[in-house]
Amino acid sequence: MVLILSNKDLQKILEMSDVIRVVEMAFKEMGLGNVQLPLRAVILLSEYNGWMGVMPSYVKGMNALATKVVTLYPNNPINLNLPTIMATIILNDPKSGAVLSIMDGTFITAMRTGAASGVAAKYLAREDSEVLGIFGAGIQARTQLMAICEVRDIKKVYIYDIIKEKADKFAEEISKKFGIKVKSVSNPKEAVKDCDIIITATTSTTPVFKGEWLQLGTHITSIGVSTQKDARELDTLTIVKSKVIVDSKEAALQEVGDIKIPILKGVINENHIYAELGEIIAGKKKGRENRDEITLFKSCGLAIQDAVTAYLAYEKAKSAGIGIEIEL
Questions:
Q1: How many CA atoms lie within 13 A of 194 on its CB side?
Q2: What's the whole-model pTM score?
Q3: Which of the chain's termini has less CB crowding within 10 Å, N or C?
Q4: What is the CATH number of the domain that holds 170?
């Protein structure tokens, strides 16, 4: 029997603290060489401004084998009232190959992406970080905030979105939900200048802030993805000033304009990438080494995050009797 889990099912059983825990373990397993992680296969649908990726992975030490099919359509929210990112995950039994579960991947993608940022902040942000700046007021922004609040005592949040009404609504909702002072700002500089941690969660194809605005000791996480290879959320100065950590060096060098563009311009080379996050968690390299470092985690989003989160959801759903079992 195959367990079918909907978005609503997953919202009942997945908590950010648990997702952070398993995502951290997955990155550590990667750092120790205990994962199989092919680069995602990608289809570009330029006539619809769309992108589809197929993301298989296996995390040996955690018994998690899964494949995610994910789509990215930046125009969806405005044109069709649909999410920018939608996904489905198939979870398999690594012992037999049998399908254990088919589940919504949209909520899992948001949760595991937030969790990765939480893990990165745990190792790279100053421990006394209190002020968070977020670019983008979509679904991802909410899980980013949830995750950062799990690992740091955040007291104030600045939110910026090119659609001011979205930022205003986000600030009102999150202030009530989390009991944190959240301020919607109309100028991107306001979401940078006084912040200890900055999150960019946009579909922008051009830099969302200037590197010259960064103060010493800031930690940045960039999760924005685009269907255009020459797109980026961060300018060259930000990259140059930062100690750069990625989830996967191979993926970053192939897919991430934020890093590829400065390399092509000859401003940096591949060695400017200091480490993969898994290497730091596994103790192979150090994370933040002093208060003045500007640290940057550039996330491509890895299938291992989906696999371990899907396995966590499956185990919790089975224990709670949630979902529908069907015979394929």
A1: 10
A2: 0.93
A3: C
A4: 3.40.50.720
